[in-house]
Amino acid sequence: MKADLNERITRIGPGTPCGRLMRHYWQPVALLDEFDPAVIPVMAQRPLKAVRLLGQDLVLFRDAQGQYGLLDRPCPHRGADLAFARYEGDGLRCPFHGWKFDVSGQCIETPAEPEGSRLCSRVRQRSYPVRECSGVLMAWLGETDPPPVPALDCFAAPPSHTFAFKGLWSCNWLQAFEVGIDPAHTSYLHRFFADASLEASYGRQFRGASAGDVGGERWPMTRIMREFDRPQISVQTTDYGMQLTTLRPMNAELTHVRVTHSIFPHTFVIPLSETMTITQMHVPVDDTHTYWYGIFTSFAEPVNKKAMRDQRLRAVTLPDYLPVSGRHNQWGFDAEEQRTRTFLGMGEDDINVHDQWACESMGPIQDRTREHLASTDVAIAANRRRLLQALDEIEAGTLPPGMARHEVASQRIGPDTVDGIAPAGDWPAWWRQQVQRRRELTPWSPVSA
């Protein structure tokens, strides 16, 4: 890739080509957990935090009525930092001159002005729409009226059947996202030399069993990825992005099938287990930092939120969900582990650190002028072509693809995923039967997406 194209698809600040693209889509700005005093105790007294999203500095708060406000961070009076505003229940008050703003950004008091002044009625801080969706606060930073929040399974499921978490990576958004649409890496980056008990697999990616069996034996996904490491990857374009189908032929009778999805521009949907999916968004903080937001969606029993939260809190520090591992400690690399237990040597409990290393070790913004794509990078190449095309469409004054369009965002998308062992000659029908049966048994889901 030429250097100018790499710049074009990675820079996301206001006014940049990719920044204009990103502002056509809803973006996660925080977890609801970040305003829960049980998780972040300081929120009991002051439910307010500074956030950075798409290169913009903002302040997010919840008023006494439970409404969320997302405002530009510099006070519109003389630019003081509203991250240090006084929280007063019905709004934020700038400590500089006492100007006060509600969740809509409307100035409601200018106390230093003369009695009877109507100045506050003419002052409004720029604000941005916020929606609560499955444990995530979604924000709209665009200039136009927003489309509906996408009708994905993760947003359609009730709160009892979803769990959301996040983490910060020190790298550009695109290299973070491209890990998720790369089916080949799982056989290497996430390779375990021994399989753990399926009984302790809850909430852990690649630790559960694939759907189906071999000779009556359920195989852990770790064994599939380890023993069948030459995947056959195909890409099908959809109105929301791409469907990725990965086949790993096992023998003359059986094929492992993994169906995942890319939702343009930075989201993927993958199976965690036979009854749970992960919808993961890779949201640019700025050009060199990215928050991943993962929403776990159960199609069976309610999610054990405490178990999943406790598993993941060990890998981050609060209140900003900063990873414990990183370049500063070599991502926890252990040479003995690499020799005897895992292909990478960076732990067996949390594979997020595996992906974090792969992304961060490329540098803050990957230099794509030096890479050599292979046949297994078919989804990477297809996504980059669509991304460049979308930037051209915006410059031509048309809407970019997928969830930026009302008619797409309002559809019941799903999308359906599978990870399982299928009859080699009949895998297309098999996987459709699997997901249809799952939907029929799901307590909250319509029969079809």
Overall helicity: 10-25%
* Cα radius of gyration in angstroms: 23 Å
Distance between the termini: 37 Å
The tally of domains stands at: 2
Q: What's the total helix number?
A: 11
Share of residues in strands: 15-25%
Q: What characteristic shape results from the CA principal axes?
A: globular
What is the count of β-strands?
20
Overall pLDDT score:
94
Let me know the largest β-sheet.
8 strands, antiparallel
Secondary-structure-derived class:
alpha+beta
Low-confidence stretches: none
Fold blueprint:
Elements (H helix, E strand, L loop, with lengths): L2 H8 L6 H6 L4 E5 L16 E6 L2 E7 L5 E5 L13 E2 L4 E2 L6 E2 L5 E3 L20 E4 L2 E4 L13 H4 L5 E8 L3 H8 L40 H7 L4 E6 L3 E9 L4 E10 L3 E7 L2 E11 L2 E10 L6 H9 L2 E2 L4 E2 L11 H6 L11 H9 L17 H18 L10 H4 L8 E6 L3 H15 L8
Would you mind describing this structure in some detail?
The chain has 449 residues and is α+β, with helices and mostly antiparallel strands. It folds into two domains: 27-139, Rieske Iron-sulfur Protein; 153-441, no CATH class. Helices cover 21% and strands 25% of the residues. The protein has helices at residues 3-10, 17-22, 153-156, 173-180, 221-227, 305-313, 335-340, 352-360, 378-395, 406-409, 427-441; strands at 27-31, 48-53, 56-62, 68-72, 86-87, 92-93, 100-101, 107-109, 130-133, 136-139, 162-169, 232-237, 241-249, 254-263, 267-273, 276-286, 289-298, 316-317, 322-323, 418-423. The mean pLDDT is 94.
Protein traits:
449 residues; 20 strands; single chain; 4-stranded antiparallel beta sheet; 8-stranded antiparallel beta sheet; Rieske Iron-sulfur Protein; alpha+beta
